[in-house]
Amino acid sequence: MTVDHIPSVADRRGSAPAPGPVTSRPHTSIATRRHRAFYMFASPWIIGFALLTIAPMAYALWLSFTTFDGISPRWHYVGFGNYRELFSDSQTWKSLGRTGLFAITSVPLSIIAGLGLAVLVNRPLKARGLFRTLLYLPAVVPPVGAGIAFKQLFDQNSGAANGVLNVFGIDALGWLADPYARYVLIMTVLWTAGNIMIISLAGLQDIPRELLEAARIDGASAWRSFRSITVPLLSPVLLFQTVTGVIASVQTIMPLLLAPDPTPAGITALPQSNYLYMMHVFAEYFAFGRYGYASALLWVLFVLILVATGLIFKATSGVVFYNVDPEAKK
Amino acid sequence: MRPHAGAAVSRRRFLSLSAGGAVAGAAALSGCAMRVSSAVGGSGETVTVMAKADDISPELIKQAQKDIGVKINTVLYSPSKLIAMMTNGNPPDLVRGVGAVDAPYYAARGVMEDLDPYFAKSSVLRPADLDPVNDLWRYDGRTQGKGPRYGMAKDFSQDSMFWYNTALFDQADVDYPPELDPVTYEEWLDKAKRLTRRRNGQTTVFGGSYNGVLTPNLLASLTVAAGGNLFTDGYSRVDFTTPEARKALGWYIDYCRTKVGPSIIQPDPNTWDGPTFQANRLAMSNSGYWLGGLINADKKLAPLSRLAPAPYFEGGRRVSPCQAGTGFWIPSKSHHKDAAWRVFEWFFGEAPAKARASGGWGIPTLKSLRPLMPAQEDYQKRVLTVQEAELKHYSVIAFTPYATADSLLALFNQIAPAAMNGAISVDTLAGRLNSAMNDQLKRGKEQV
Predict the structure, then answer these.
(1) Whole-structure pTM value
(2) B83 to chain A: nearest residue by CA?
(3) What does the pLDDT look like over A300-318, one tens digit per residue?
């Protein structure tokens, strides 16, 4: 490209390109060359996406129509057999129901906890930086370490949780068994609310201070300001947290780390309340060696996530307030 | 509870084997009398070994290069990674496996190399010197224990035998089990109940642990001990409703229900018996001779610990099987079979095998290495006496080739807790296990 053909600032803003002498490539328009440059620079990602995302997904889709088990020579094509079986598999429906319940419980709780912490550490406190760091710290602990720690902490016979109960004369509880196991699982989610806190904090700091001051001068209480100014202005952040939270919660693998025996076969010994959809998928893949059936389960989950995300966007379209009109960006 | 595929590696075991490897290396360098194979080469090649970290230490890998001139690359053991590598046509050259359950499954699918021609030429691993436990790695297309050899065990235990802590027996005023005569399973459970100590809803001392290596394998062994066979119709079905299988299942559910030891409804956070036994919180552990590696290294625990024969069912058979026989096999699509065999020979018959034999972590799988088993201390001599008497009762208990033990265990884990918690009867459980496991076996049979 010669100096003459470097797009001007006006070009980059979308104005019509100024006519100029074309010397080296007379038949290639500037737009075509810009497209080429775009694809050339984007190609590492595009190739990676194709090889590491699209190809495995397509392979999994193909597997979902077979009885492939990884080892046996006589696997075969079964059409929609795996999908049909999926609808009659009680474990699928039960685990899906538990996963829905888990998402409905854990996502709002973790968003509320994260927002509460953000409001707290957004105040002009002494050692505010230290508090922010300490509250965020659990989010950077590797999940495996956290899982092991929780398992030790809540062990019925040697865990600290029951040690505390014993001090008060209360008999030990089986925290890692039904019905308490679900609460321990939710605690593991809330424990990492620092993640949500950081995002909410960024959102809070983006809220124009003059709006809050104007509300205060007008006599609005702190709660009214929070409800009528902070929450609406934070709504895009809350929507983001809801969507990513739902996706993360349906894909959650944390119960595996709380399993009595965290192996493919061992996770089926999880308390019923913690046997979520991904546990079922994991067991079908690695304990039962049913690669075809498990791939079908994953494809169904993928579609469900798309539907759930669409529904969330649809349901919140009237209550999410964008500072910049999204229509204007089109 | 014995760690199995996928379970965490004990630090002590890792250190012990690493040290063993170093000792073995020193012994090899000092020129100890060692047979060296001349039949197969492989020097200068690189062999990929899929193993757990405590199977082949970095010191042992260096030693292999010095001893046999073969470079070893290790890949961490993972069944899913193994499948991926095999699907890509680039399998590891040596793969870790649990002979008792893996051998029939993989051999039936034709992915294991028949090692008989190699054994026939070897001057290190002579068939006459192989302990009968290695028959776990034989499969004739129908039954485990017969036919070509597909692998070999690195060491073994008779896993239904149990260790007991005499101090905890004394504290609970419970009689020790007889030295050489077995107790019945009912007596074992009765002792376990009397040995268990509880306070404020917490178990401070577990009376006994009896989980075997993998529960389906344990149940198959218990059923044979009761005089029957869990598998029917050429190993293509299970039947938990026969009187013998029902007896075995009932006993195990009773063990879980009384919560005298770890189980899936009362898991031990350590995931295996070693640390709990070492902390004097477990009175009996059915871990076989293998646990002696840990016990011998603890000078306080060793004199208190004794090994006892495998229990039996009244009216049943006295059997004392090996439920693991962990070792290695060579995939039939390996690109370096000769070099892999050279590593195989070295690992199972030369310096590393000698180091393992003297470490106490299992019985050597070559009869000629038995004299190396630890016997310096009185308590070690006592253990050896019990162990040697027990070898007479060893037998192969064949496993199905139509399902992995993991898949049957996963089904058991899903269905059995209801019975362990008293929500369903053992008879109902037996019916549900039959239905779920036979579906899995049927699917497996269709693919072989």
Answers:
(1) 0.84
(2) A70
(3) 999 999 999 999 999 998 8
